[in-house]
């Protein structure tokens, strides 16, 4: 435990929240607790502020305009595998609404000296299974082939469709548990296109809520490795990556074929035309079902508004150009045409070392 990180965070909290009162008494309390126990306990106010600032500091996130509105579910007393799984399902229910998605984070028990925190092995709370077949091909999402094998080894059985929602795999107190995500906690959107009736026949769909569960929230020297957080999707994540990448659902050739495009040469830009129609379908389907989603043009404009506000507040807004610029029509969005400061600030969401 580095007490300097603790001190920096406590000072930041008091500087941005005068209502928290004088900083010295709280600093003395924190440093005394670190002396006695090797760590210290955030107040719920500090935890809430820390989770919101960690989002504000996320240099790869285009969606930071609403960083102050993050709902923080303080569940640090929950440290069993069953309890964690329960809280994840509750998180999905609270965040999903009936399509009006609310950005939220659930903070479970932190790492403490001699007490390893629980961990969720899934990358996200909702992921589609990827079944590896004899010939090496994958039915479903190839990105999740490894965790699908692990779940099958642990006795899980899916229905064998391309969109089987995986169970949660949670490790806590040396135990590994599998917990199905109840069907009614998983809102999905079947994909159709406003102009092409055949699109619905492709049988494509995607889940409404992206909820990251493989990152650790670090606040003032304390690590919360189990802190799943959700926002809403930007359409390109589904239409330009998850369904388009060759090593994901690889749908561009299929869409191009049905569009009647000439796929014999790259220079016909059949890939690009298929990409646009796939992304039109995603945005159209989510909007028609009343499920929150944002397009990359709107989100780019919002991000620059956020960045300008941050600079007016006298803060640096860290940003990583290579992640901020959308994977479709980059230069057609305003975030392409400028540079950013890619500094690393804390509090932060960091990638956890992989669980072996
Ligand atoms: C509310 C709507 C939000 C939108 C539209 C949004 C959008 C995005 C997008 C498009 C990415 C890049 C993902 C990729 O390329 O795979 C991203 C990255 C990220 N976002 Fe956001 N975001 C939102 C909310 C949030 C919230 C609530 C948090 C945390 C509290 C968050 C934290 C992050 C982090 C840490 C990354 C980088 C992940 C990594 O390094 O792997 N975002 N966001
Ligand atoms: N829209 C989102 N998108 C993502 C945000 C962070 C990470 C990811 C997934 O990143 C993976 C690793 C690199 N690309 C896929 C997606 C959100 C998820 C949770 C809150 S907002």
Automatic annotation (TrEMBL):
Listed cofactors: heme
Q: What class of enzyme is it?
A: oxidoreductase
UniProt binding sites for heme:
61
Example GO molecular function term?
heme binding
Hey, which family's this protein in?
Answer: Belongs to the NOS family. Bacterial NOS oxygenase subfamily.
Function comment = Catalyzes the production of nitric oxide.
Under which name does UniProt file this protein?
Nitric oxide synthase oxygenase
Species assigned in the record: Microbispora catharanthi
């Amino acid at each position: 435990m580095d007490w300097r990180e603790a001190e920096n965070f406590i000072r930041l909290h008091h500087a941005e929240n005068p209502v928290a009162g004088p900083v010295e008494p709280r600093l003395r309390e924190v440093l005394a607790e670190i002396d006695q126990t090797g760590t210290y306990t955030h107040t719920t106010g500090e935890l809430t502020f820390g989770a919101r600032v960690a989002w504000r500091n996320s240099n790869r996130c285009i969606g930071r305009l609403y960083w102050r509105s993050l709902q923080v579910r303080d569940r640090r007393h929950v440290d069993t595998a069953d309890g964690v799984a329960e809280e994840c399902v509750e998180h999905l229910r609270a965040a999903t609404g009936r399509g009006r998605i609310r950005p939220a984070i659930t903070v479970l028990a932190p790492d403490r000296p001699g007490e390893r925190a629980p961990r969720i092995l899934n990358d996200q709370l909702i992921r589609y299974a990827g079944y590896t077949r004899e010939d090496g091909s994958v039915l479903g999402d190839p990105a999740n082939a490894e965790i699908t094998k692990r779940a099958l080894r642990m006795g899980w059985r899916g229905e064998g469709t391309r969109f089987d929602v995986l169970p949660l795999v949670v490790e806590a107190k040396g135990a590994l548990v599998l917990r199905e995500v109840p069907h009614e906690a998983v809102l999905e959107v079947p994909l159709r296109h406003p102009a092409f009736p055949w699109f619905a026949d492709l049988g494509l769909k995607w889940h409404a809520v992206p909820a990251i569960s493989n990152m650790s929230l670090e606040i003032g020297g304390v690590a919360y490795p189990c802190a799943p957080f959700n926002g809403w999707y930007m359409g390109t994540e589904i239409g330009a990556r998850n369904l388009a990448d060759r090593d994901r659902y690889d749908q561009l050739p299929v869409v191009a074929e049905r569009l009647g495009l000439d796929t014999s040469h790259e220079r016909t830009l059949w890939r690009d035309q298929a990409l646009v129609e796939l992304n039109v379908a995603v945005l159209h389907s989510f909007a028609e079902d009343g499920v929150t989603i944002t397009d990359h043009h709107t989100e780019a404009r919002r991000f620059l508004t956020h960045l300008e506000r941050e600079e007016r507040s006298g803060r640096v807004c860290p940003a990583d150009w290579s992640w901020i610029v959308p994977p479709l029509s980059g230069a057609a969005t305003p975030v392409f045409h400028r540079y950013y400061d890619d500094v690393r600030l804390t509090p932060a969401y960091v990638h956890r070392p992989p669980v072996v």
